[in-house]
Amino acid sequence: MQKIKTVKYNLPVEGMTCASCVTRVEKALSKVEGIENVSVNLANEKVTFDMNEGLSPDLAAKAIDKFGYKLHTESLKDNETENKSDNLIDEYYTNLKKDFIFSALLTLPIFLISMLREFIWFSSIFPFGDDYTNKILLILVTPIIFVSGKRFYKIFWTNLKHFSFEMNSLVAIGTGAAYGYSVFATLFPKFLMIDDKLPHVYFETAAVIIVLITMGKLLETRAKRKTGGAIKNLLELKPKEATIIQDDKELVVKLSELKISDMVIIKPGEKIPADGIIVSGSSFVDETMITGESVPIEKIVGSKVIGGTINTNGSFNFEISALGDNSILGQIIKLVETAQGSKAPIQQLADKVSSIFVPTVILIATATFIAWMIFAETNNFSIALINFVAVLIIACPCALGLATPTAIMVGTGLGAQHGILIKNGESLEIAHKINTIVLDKTGTITEGKPTVTDIITNGLDNSELLSFAASIEKKSQHPIATSIVEYANGLNTNYFEPESFENLSGYGVTAIVNDKSVALGNEKLMNKFSINIDDFSESFEKLSTKGKTIIFCAIDNKLNGIIAVEDPIKDTSKEAIERMQKSGLEVFMLTGDNNITAEAIANRVGIKNYFAEVLPNQKAEKIKELQKQGKIVAMVGDGINDSPALVTANLGIAIGTGTDIAIESSDITLIKGNLNGVVEAIALSKKTIRIIKQNLFWAFVYNTIGIPFAALGFLNPMIGALAMSLSSVSVISNSLRLKRVKL
Ligand code: ADP
Ligand code: MG
């Protein structure tokens, strides 16, 4: 069967207010044929999904339109999804603010009159009788209900048609009941009179609830805008324009007009507009914003520069190699965006609970009403009603829906600012459970850039041996191969064209050079061809103990010499490994290199457990072995022959400007090439999960404690409205605390 190609969409949705909306939108979209992997993020009010190529996203818009949600597909055409959803949120915020001010101004007199009328002296300064006062209140409160309250009733109504309920339903039923009853009591008091006393009215309750909930939404929207700040910061890294050379003239152009291969001029202090390679000049470039590396990096002719970084004092010209979505910054933005829109498994519980929460609350509220009707001694209708309203209002589950996504947004955003790219909420969650770290040796603990240090020969010249070795290694991509070729280039070595070249992954290389069969590689390779290494065993041991890697060079099945290469350990490795061990993590090293070299390197960085002489295809097996012992394993590698291990591990961390494959197969990518990033990523995960747990705890506790109080008549619905608004705001503020975390 042919696999259908899909397109990933990430679009703003208008009208989602709480956790139950999330479930509803997800369900409605998942039902559409050709749409998969739907995930709604309430924090940035966006939905991501995969859609079969050729289908129109309008199909998706239609599916949720009947539930009262609007999918903004037009932003696709603008190619400015980010700005679009920002504008939407801004517009929403302005409207909310207007509604809030309007309803607050009207509520003030309503509230004062309703409270003060309870005092006898009030009648001496307020000349209207109870009957008239009620009518004045009715006139004041009606615009609040129909103007500011409209947003709740509209959504309630759309949902009611599908017999579904969510947060707006609770507010709408609650305030609607209080208002409706009071209108009736004002216009037809006779029906409700007990002992000739006018019935009590609850206009202020309806008004205050609407004001407070609108205020809560207002504060919530303001705080939410802050959680998405990371992407905005990233987008602002690039300059608006750039100076390029065209027909020998300098020309200032807009960023959107840049093309691959354009020659860009960078002056001191300028922002670099795109990725590229320096052709002339030199400078130091501040790459903090991309890699988290705080020291400016030296750039000379041939160095890569990254769009979005800032030049210091020098100046240079560079040729553009990548732009837009293909640039490093573009890829980072995409990654962060997807991560921020993704869900952590911990959220599933909250989603499940809130989808059955609202109907349950309506049942509890109804039961409360009935119980008070039966058991209250006087005024039972009025008391039953107010407690019914109190239960509805206190139980609104909006804090629940915000607990996880806001923390994920802030957490992944903060990571990106430190050069830690987290693939999704799931990766972020797993990271905090890790208790074992496996580090690849080459390129992870070490620089991955070995240099030749010694050549020892027997029966032929060093230069002769080198010319055989380098001729073959020219064909290999291995870092060891590169080092040998570089060394040979510096010595004007003769090259031959090798025949029948073969790369034996984890062993070395073989080929026919100048009619001689040459084998170049480790001890295992020599064993494979039954080549005796006794003549060199002494030097082999001596050099290996120093942490060098020994390459045996056999010509026509006779060992003619060895080449030692040394791959320097990164300055930061030892300290970072110590930090891991101090925080209780068990650290292992994994390498294809020989036992003696492995031991030497492990000793130097303070690692006790290591696996040496592991073939590339066995690396994943080693991870599985550790997992079988019950360990939760993070594998850190550069992606050169360790991708399977990265995938097998519970958490795959790709380090350095790793290869593209590694980024694909990893859960976390560290742009900055040092191991401190591993410690920081785990710390970030722990802090984020702690915040999520706090958020969920408070959101749950507050609802569960509130409901019985309200049902028993101990909670004024106005206080309930205040508590509910504040709880959403406090959940978001708690998530925003993450922004200030030091990594
Ligand atoms: P690592 O785990 O250090 O990345 P590899 O699995 O890539 O190691 O390689 C293991 C060993 O195989 C190297 O230490 C080296 O001895 C040998 N080897 C691999 N490729 C080559 C090559 N192109 N030339 C010489 N030796 C090689
Ligand atoms: Mg490797």
List of distinct ligands in this structure: adenosine-5'-diphosphate, magnesium ion
Form type: elongated
Helix/strand-derived category reads: alpha+beta
Which percent range fits the helix content?
Answer: 40-55%
Strand elements, count: 25
Instruction: Give the low-confidence spans.
Output: none
Radius of gyration: 34 Å
Rounded to the nearest angstrom, the distance between the terminal CA atoms is: 48 Å
Task: Quickly count the helices.
Answer: 28
Q: What is the CATH first-level class name of the domain at 420-446 and 569-671?
A: Alpha Beta
Relative strand content: 15-25%
CATH fold name of the domain at 420-446 and 569-671: Rossmann fold
Mean pLDDT: 86
Biggest sheet record? 8 strands, antiparallel
The CATH superfamily of the domain at 420-446 and 569-671 appears as HAD superfamily/HAD-like
> What is the correct CATH architecture of the domain at 420-446 and 569-671?
3-Layer(aba) Sandwich
